[in-house]
Amino acid sequence: MLLAIDCGNTNTVFSIWDGEKFLCTLRTSTHHARTADAYFTWYSTLVKHYGIEADITDVIISSTVPRVVFNLRVFADRFFGCRPMVVGKPECLLPQAPRVDAGTQVGPDRLVNTAGAFDRHGGNLIVVDFGTATTFDVVGHDGAYEGGVIAPGVNLSLEALHMAAAALPHVDIAKPQRVVGTNTVACMQSGVFWGYVGLVREICTRIKAERDQQMMIVATGGLASLFQQTEALFDAFEEDLTMHGLTVIHRYNKENTPR
């Protein structure tokens, strides 16, 4: 079985793939000082709790936090006896090489989302990922990553308001009942929610105009469902897009790496 690990700036997600479906998905906060032993204690406790018997033979990692990769490598080697694939490293092959400026390093999360979205929807896509940053990834007709846009994440914007303005409280993102708020919380929620609706709509419109073609918009990430339910911003919502992309890249390497 495959253990797919997606390490983001805020959370790290572990999913067990049996070749046909994900048996479980486990989530923990990202912390660069967490040791291999600590990962295994947490992982094994939850797997046992869910009653899952998983014989892990392969591990693949996508990490936007380089400092955690070493301990995840040790975790895979020590407890599963395998050398993990790490997306973004030269030895981890991609179905299509990204078409970006020479010397540019593309975030592994964006490469994984590209692979997952192309596998499910084909090419000419815009993938919008609501993570710590809100990213827009352009997927070419052949599945290659062709660039994108990076904007501050929704929660990051709310936290910045709270930290920079002493009078403004910390609030959770939600769709306000009205655009014009009559209290501080409602005003902040309206600004962030409708501001991001406008941001997503405008950026996607401009990408389509710049490329002069129709493109399917695919959303993923924790807050994508909130915006999808309230505004018709996306053509599809994929909750497990990143994890699916990891299985796609793993399969591609298995099929194209000499034994």
TrEMBL record:
Enzyme class: transferase
Cofactor binding remark: A monovalent cation. Ammonium or potassium.
Subcellular localization, as worded in the UniProt entry: Cytoplasm
Keyword Transcription regulation: no
Any GO BP: coenzyme A biosynthetic process
GO molecular-function term, one example from the UniProt record: ATP binding
Cofactor(s) listed: NH4(+); K(+)
Assembly and interaction partners: Homodimer.
Cited function: Catalyzes the phosphorylation of pantothenate (Pan), the first step in CoA biosynthesis.
Assigned protein family: Belongs to the type III pantothenate kinase family.
Protein name: Type III pantothenate kinase
